[in-house]
Amino acid sequence: MTEELKLMGANRRDQLLLWLKESKSPLTGGELAKKANVSRQVIVQDISLLKAKNVPIIATSQGYVYMDAAAQQHQQAERIIACLHGPERTEEELQLIVDEGVTVKDVKIEHPVYGDLTAAIQVGTRKEVSHFIKKINSTNAAYLSQLTDGVHLHTLTAPDEHRIDQACQALEEAGILIKD
Amino acid sequence: MTEELKLMGANRRDQLLLWLKESKSPLTGGELAKKANVSRQVIVQDISLLKAKNVPIIATSQGYVYMDAAAQQHQQAERIIACLHGPERTEEELQLIVDEGVTVKDVKIEHPVYGDLTAAIQVGTRKEVSHFIKKINSTNAAYLSQLTDGVHLHTLTAPDEHRIDQACQALEEAGILIKD
Predict the structure, then answer these.
(1) Where are the domains of chain B?
(2) Do the Cβ atoms of A117 and B122 come within 8 Å?
(3) Which residue of B has its CA nearest to A62?
(4) Which of A27, A176, B15, B81 is 20 to 30 A distant from A21 in Cα terms?
(5) pLDDT digits (tens, 9 = 90+) for A164-180
(6) Among A143-152, B114-123, B125-134, whose mean pLDDT is lowest?
(7) What ipTM was predicted for this assembly?
């Protein structure tokens, strides 16, 4: 740690919040650690403290995002869908969805020990999809859906219901959507 | 599969919902599979379809639970807390909380690839805590908090704020609560 000024406690958390509010794209823990001149672990604890105060920060697969009311307002339509596919079709599935201008807010599976396990992946563009897939492949992380033989839920968000209808139709045609 | 009547599609889902609504305690996938005379995987898909219709079923660490309005009403107070401890203190932490009559609704950590990962463990008694810990040990599942060097969030629910205050005080005295 160089001798540059190290931001301390509450001031640091205020500054983190400011950076996140001003940023147009997600900020990773590493980027925030460098900016605040502290370790990545200190950032994880700081973000946890802010979340414990109900500050609307989410850790997405791309980094931390401040979800203010306006950002949430933009995504008025929301729908939960049930999907079934092998891990090799994850990228295809996500692309079918984002190509309709729809965001995949999360993926939910049933963990045999923990019960419902929800991951806030928050991918809405082809770039974010490929970044997410690359991260999975580079870290050898398992696809969560492998825990339940491919069955999983997604919460989809979009500016309107029509886009979600289109995404569901595309998934159905691809044999990915589980229908009643 | 014996030749007993196998419940089919939508009827089966209606029946699953009825069993869950009537049950005073969580029902496991295995129990529902036996009752409906189908495989466990069929039950996972059925529950996913019901969840996709916003039916308030959650998969907890103890099994499926139907969270009707009354059940949720009973738990009016809710608070997110930030905690830090090693995996060996998980049981102690959960006991400190449930001993105050407080329920641990979930555990949330930051997965390096998936972002926020939330597990609906839903433990509220010493019996449920020991069942959860036994399951982790018997399946060698890692504690989620091990992914973030012990830092994690819990959402606590209880009939009133006072019980949550007491639980937080106990956690603080044990050096588990991360404070501002």
Answers:
(1) 9-69, 75-173
(2) no
(3) B115
(4) B81
(5) 999 999 999 999 999 87
(6) A143-152
(7) 0.86
| B contacts of A119 (beta carbons < 8 Å) | 111, 114-118
The confidence band for A4, taking pLDDT boundaries of 50, 70 and 90, is: low
pLDDT digits (tens, 9 = 90+) for A65-110: 999 877 777 778 999 999 999 999 999 999 999 999 999 999 999 8
Minimal Cα–Cα distance from B57 to chain A, Å? 10
Please state which CATH class domain A75-173 belongs to.
alpha beta
- 3-state secondary structure labels for all residues of chain B: CCCCCCCCHHHHHHHHHHHHHHCCCCECHHHHHHHHCCCHHHHHHHHHHHHHCCCCEEEECCEEEECCHHHHHHCCEEEEEEEECCHHHHHHHHHHHHCCCCEEEEEEEEECCCEEEEECCCECCHHHHHHHHHHHHHHCCCCHHHHHCCEEEEEEEECCHHHHHHHHHHHHHCCCECCC
- pLDDT digits over A10-26, tens only? 899 999 999 999 999 99
Distance from CA of A3 to the nearest CA of B (A): 25
Report the top-level CATH class of B9-69. Answer: mainly alpha
Nearest CA-CA distance, residue B171 and chain A, Å: 15
Single-letter amino acid code for the residue at A137: N
- Tokens linked to B94: 């959960």
